[in-house]
Amino acid sequence: MNKHQALKKYFGYDTFREGQEKIIDAILEGRDALGIMPTGAGKSLCYQIPALLLPGITLVISPLISLMKDQVQSLNQAGIHAAYINSSLTENQITKALQFAAEGRYKIIYAAPERLETYEFLNFAAQVEISMLTVDEAHCISQWGQDFRPSYLKIVQFFKQLKTRPIVSAFTATATENVREDISCVLGLKEPEVLVTGFDRKNLSFAVETPKNKAGYVLDYLKEHAEESGIIYCSTRKNVEQLYEKIAAAGVSVTKYHAGLTNEERRLNQEDFVYDKIPVMVATNAFGMGIDKSNVRFVIHYNMPQNLENYYQEAGRAGRDGEPSECNLLYSAQDVMIAQYLLESKEENPELAEEELEALRERDAERLRSMNYYCLTTNCLRRYILNYFGEQSTERCENCSNCRKEFVIADMTSEAETIISCVRELRGRYGINVVAGTLAGDDRAKLREYGVSSYKSFGSLKTLGEQKIKRLINQMLVDGFLVSTRDKYALLKLTDKADEILQGTQKIILKEPKEEPKHSVSQSSSAGKRKSDILNSKGLEFFERLRTLRTEIARQEGMPPYIIFSDKTLVDMCIRLPLTKEEMLAVSGVGENKFVKYGERFLEEIKQYTGGTKEKLYFGTFEEVEQLCGDTGKKKRKERKRVEKSSFSITREQAEKFPYADQYLAPELAEKLNELREEELIKKTSGAEIFRRVQELGLAGERYENGRRQRYVTEAGKEAGLWLGSRISKAGTEYQDIYYGRKAQRMVAEWFVKEI
Description:
5 domains; about 45% helix
């Protein structure tokens, strides 16, 4: 059997996903491997396929019992004999499992790192051939990872005791460059094949919201998503309990999970959620790792997490099936204090020296700042995340709350100078609340106690209002002109960079959302249609019948429905309406073992519904459906691929052909640029995109004057070749617009040049 035959026989797929084959080939060649792949990208297959083809046993080190149980269930369903060794088993069960493994009954064994130290396990390892040792959730081995576990260091001690060193592979979803290097060094990987497929989850929509009433926001959201499954993360047990009570009181089917519950309560609540008995889970971050529930449609963070690694890992539990899903973070300034308190309360590793502990504290503080800045930024949220993980991106995703909002952009450099003067006058002794209150001229008791009314800066920005002053201070923190201390007082201090504002070499541009009428809490623009969206009314009716059958089988088998078949597989059945074994095996996700177990029952359901006659249960042509769902037929069928246009760019040669003129408006400039591109391969640009870039560079902006929005050009913009000119609207009204001279035209063209 080769890798392609194993993929089809056991997992029901014809082709590998991006990156999988490369890392599988490396392992089969006997090389070590390190895979950094986002949640839902198919990391498990990267070691499960080689495990089937290598001669001995593959030992998988996994951090959580729930993760092991889920993986082993899925493998056994696919016809692959696997087992786990952990504390949920009795000693007799562990002995029997190791005995069966030694006899060759299991190709894959899952174990917790603590298990590797036991005499029984070491004795077992000495008797069998371990072809590969795989470290799952490998970031746990790095002190610089967000979830460092000292027990993971036992992995290295274990395989050093083996007579023959196995192939070592490691996988994780979230790892910065430092963490990747740490994993490789600590595990002693030998010339590994390193695969980083990218961190982007295009099907996820990101949003940061600042509702005054978070619980009210959640209840409204759940009403709008009544038929969907989701997770709501809270930072403390208290918040979990309070929110759970409010949701339950509103009549929503909900369960909860945190460390304060008994083991049995946690197990039952988790199973209710995973088995689709209860759609909504309210939990602390103790919940979720290893939960492979594929149909989670939303993840809401009720509080800001401590770092972006945790946030992205938790948010990534939405949309594992590739379907569009939402990740919403509800932010308040109090979240920062809660996160700071939790960091200070964190148990420290007693084996580390003080200087190492201090370095880890500094790392945690820096991560918290990055997380806070994510909540404060007005730029693309997806781009912020990707850049944080070292994947440089300059494009807007158009699928996050910031990209969907309209912003009013204003040059606030003068006001920033006033803030700098105030911080200097207060000698860095106060935090953001006191500084903002001083500048706003507030008369509250605490400020009177501090005597701030005697300072020159008192009331100097009164016209802005305290909330806008705070937003401006936050922007200066994000831009690095201010810094807040890491202690609980979070005092504001000036950085060396602040002098650049006073010297006139730096500007502060504040982007604020344009006020809009009250709207629904769910605003995401879909990252693409869901697979079920292509089914017509009769197709959706049949899809629900297949889901009902799947649930019935899952209850009989005592396992989660998604392990039987995923929603994607059921949609493919609705499209293809297989009536024979051969046709059923062509359905995505139907392998030979699953057909033996469940194929006939689903075939019978299809025959009952259709009467044995195929009909069209979807919109569009079959080719269009294939573009949406992917090519899931047999290999001999020709691939049908839609050509995806790239974001706007031009070559150096095309730029040289640009028809420069004395002046263009932004839409005219965009039109001339679009004429240069390869129309079949490249998307258009627009005047709005050009103006957006101009704003981001601080060359121009918009502001309200006399109740009307007016554009303006900064001094830097004038130097770049921009100027204001009069125009007449269709209604006959005169207004000002921005013109681009030859110098500005060259600058804009240069932005889009892509060197080949």
